[in-house]
Design a protein that fits this description.
It is a single chain. Helix content is about 50%, strand content about 15%. The chain is of the alpha+beta class. The strands form 7 sheets. A 4-stranded antiparallel β-sheet has the order 5-2-9-10, with no helix packed on it. Strands 7-19-16-17 form a 4-stranded mixed β-sheet. Strands 14-15-18 form a 3-stranded antiparallel β-sheet, with helices on one face. Helix 8 packs antiparallel against helix 16 and helix 18 packs antiparallel against helix 19. The N terminus is likely disordered.
């Protein structure tokens, strides 16, 4: 009966003209050969471009968390065009991205050979400023600082062979490399046997750039589109202008005192390669497919998923069967004598909803946790839909911050409603704590880290104007929205419990070791952490090892598994404690799943010790400062999930038993 109208609606939908669109900043750019007269009109009308712009970004290192701007290393910079840098979004500024124009002059389809960039650089050891610049450059080489260049919104990659006959394409390349006093080549010095002189810094002052393109033959776009930009860094001691002999590396002495001035040039070569067999839409694939451990990640996540689902099924089955028997037995009790002989979770029905201690603090944490959960879920949905791809730099962080700020209303509502349910009356203090406590702690830690970055002269130091903008978002947007949510939360009636609370608290019997609070809380975080630690490794790699993270579909799946396991583990332990006649479940439910954050912190310490080679007090302080913020937010995320799962479970089981 309903088939014909459905077919009509479907036909109308299919008949409507559909137009695709590109996200801002991600639209393809066409390029034309300026020497071809047929392209003159296209170039004048802006349908295509002839100049291929190369942008430089901040330099970072896996051995230091402190990034620096490009000009800090005294590279060649265009003084006039430096002020015309692209505008960074909020996420880019917070991550320390500083995208600037460069002096590399590249014209489409025009090959270059050993072209000089800005003339000879000279460093006189008797000049304090020049000596300081050279020492800073050597320090960058020693700590393996990496360039990050951009062409046509694509990272310029350095592809090299790794274990297993694989090729890894790194979205960056080193400033240089160092050979130790014992003659051991470090980092990129292993690529060339000529880099072998002891205690020598080899500066990569020459790059061979290879740009591949699709000329648009058979396609419906004007001109050509760039597919990739790859380079090979080299160290060359130029004998004269226009000559780049690869058998003469540029070695800068280490501790050896050299009273003569150090002089060298920066040069580059460009070659265009036609690749019509590749599509513009899939031009990121060669980078993502080369990422290390990609295949391992697929297998590990699927293996973890199977194990967690199996354990979750067992927990749910045992819990449901046991509960079914308990409810049936309790509802069959008829005489008072049988009721007195009964034991278990029904006996604490008069105390199970007794308000917890520090009710205001718990309500505030629940409100902020709800705000974090909603921000994470919405962000992951956008990421899975492709709105937050790696090509859209800074979009992920910007999205998280804007969503968190705009979701102040649910935070205020949840906090106020739960505080009123707990019997609280100091609503002004509650809403102020919800607005300022966690946010204030995070901002204070962030501000201290920003001071360290400012002292170090890092590009990651947030400008004063950005700090004012963040404070404006907090005080002018988030706080008023939190007050609005709290107003509606206090206007609502408290949540009604299925059973009444006795005036006199029931005495809790002596508990066994396993039903005491601390062992239960410690055990509660094991299973949730077990389902995320593999994904956590890749997330930490993307943050601290500067690798591209793009598997948001798997991350969404892992977060879903985390929610399920946090809920089930908390409910299971809550049931055991209620059966042991311990009705103090409010805080315990929050801390049980929230203790997953403690394992997160322990794993972060293990990652710092075993995977990273970070040196210096400043970098160590920054690492653990950022880790503290992540652990705190993760604690609120998991704790809130555990609390509301347990709250729903306790309300449900006490609503289906007969209570006199």
């Amino acid at each position: 009966m309903y088939l014909r109208p459905a077919l009509v609606v479907l036909a109308v939908c299919l008949a409507v003209e559909v137009r695709g669109f590109y996200l801002p900043g991600l639209a393809p750019v066409s390029y034309c050969d300026p020497t071809d007269e047929s392209n003159k009109e296209k170039l004048e009308q802006g349908e295509c471009r002839s100049k291929v712009e190369l942008f430089v970004n901040r330099l970072d290192s896996v051995e230091s968390i402190i990034p620096y701007e490009y000009d800090r290393f005294d590279f060649c910079v265009p003084t006039e065009e430096w002020a015309k840098s692209p505008t960074e979004n909020l996420g880019q500024v917070l991550f320390g991205d500083r995208i600037r124009p460069s002096m590399y002059n590249i014209t489409f389809l025009k090959d270059e050979k050993c072209r000089d960039l800005c003339g000879a650089k000279s460093y006189d050891p008797t000049n304090a400023d020049q000596s300081k610049n050279l020492n800073f450059l050597k320090r960058g080489v020693l700590q393996n600082y990496q360039h990050h260049w951009i062409i046509d919104n694509m990272p310029v990659t350095w592809c090299y062979d790794v274990e297993g006959d694989r090729k890894y394409c790194n979205p960056g390349f080193p400033v240089g490399c160092y050979v130790t006093k014992k003659g051991t080549p470090k980092d990129a010095c292993v690529i060339n046997p000529l880099y072998n002189e002891k205690d020598t810094y080899y500066l990569f002052n020459h790059v061979d750039i290879f740009i591949s393109y699709n000329d648009g033959e058979g396609e419906n776009w004007p001109g050509a589109r760039l597919l990739s930009a790859k380079l090979e860094p080299k160290s060359i001691n130029h004998p004269r202008a226009g000559e780049c002999p690869e058998d003469r590396p540029l070695g800068l002495p280490g501790t050896k005192v050299d009273k003569t001035a150090t002089k060298f040039n920066y040069t580059y070569s460009v070659e265009f390669v036609k690749q019509n067999g590749h599509k513009w839409a899939s031009r990121w694939d060669y980078i993502l497919d080369s990422m290390p451990h990609t295949n391992i990640q697929w297998f590990s996540i699927m293996n973890s998923l199977v194990i967690v689902l199996f354990l979750s099924g067992m927990v749910a089955m045992i819990l449901l069967r046991t509960l079914h028997k308990d409810i049936a037995r309790y509802n069959q009790i008829e005489s008072a004598e049988e009721a007195q002989e009964e034991f278990g979770w029904k006996l604490v029905h008069g105390d199970v909803f007794r308000p917890p201690g520090s009710a205001m603090l718990l309500a505030m944490l629940l409100g902020t946790g709800s705000q974090i959960i909603m921000s994470v879920v919405v962000t992951l949905v956008f990421a899975c839909l492709g709105f937050l791809s790696p090509a859209n730099r800074g979009a992920l962080m910007t999205c998280v911050i804007i969503l968190y700020v705009c979701l102040g209303t649910p935070a205020g509502y949840v906090s106020a409603r739960m505080y009123k349910t707990f019997g609280g009356e100091r609503w002004k203090t509650n809403v102020l704590m919800t607005s300022f406590l966690v946010q204030g702690v995070v901002f204070s830690v962030f501000f201290m880290m920003n001071l360290v970055l400012w002292v170090e002269g890092s590009s990651a130091a947030i400008p004063f104007s950005t700090l004012i903008a963040l404070l404006a978002l907090w005080f002018c947007v988030s706080v008023p929205l939190t007050f609005i949510g709290a107003y509606f939360g206090f206007k609502k009636r408290p949540i009604e419990h299925p059973v009444r609370t006795n005036q006199i608290p029931r005495q809790i019997p002596e508990q066994s070791f396993y039903t005491k609070p601390l062992p239960g809380i410690v055990m509660g975080g094991v299973l949730p952490f077990g389902c995320i630690f593999i994904q956590l490794f890749f997330i930490l790699n993307s943050i601290w090892s500067h690798q591209i993270y793009y598997m948001f579909g798997f991350l969404f799946l892992v977060v879903l598994i985390l929610v399920i396991t946090c809920s089930e583990a908390t409910i299971l332990l809550c049931y055991f404690h209620l059966c042991a006649e311990d009705y103090h479940w409010w805080w315990r439910s929050f801390l049980t799943s929230g203790f997953t954050a403690f394992y997160f912190f322990i794993y972060s310490v293990h990652y710092f010790v075993s995977k990273l080679a970070i040196e210096g007090m400043a970098s160590t302080f920054l690492y653990f400062g950022y880790t503290f913020i992540m652990v705190l937010l993760f604690f609120l995320f998991t704790g809130t999930i555990g609390f509301f799962s347990c709250f729903w479970f306790v309300s449900k089981i006490y609503s289906v038993v007969k209570v006199d």
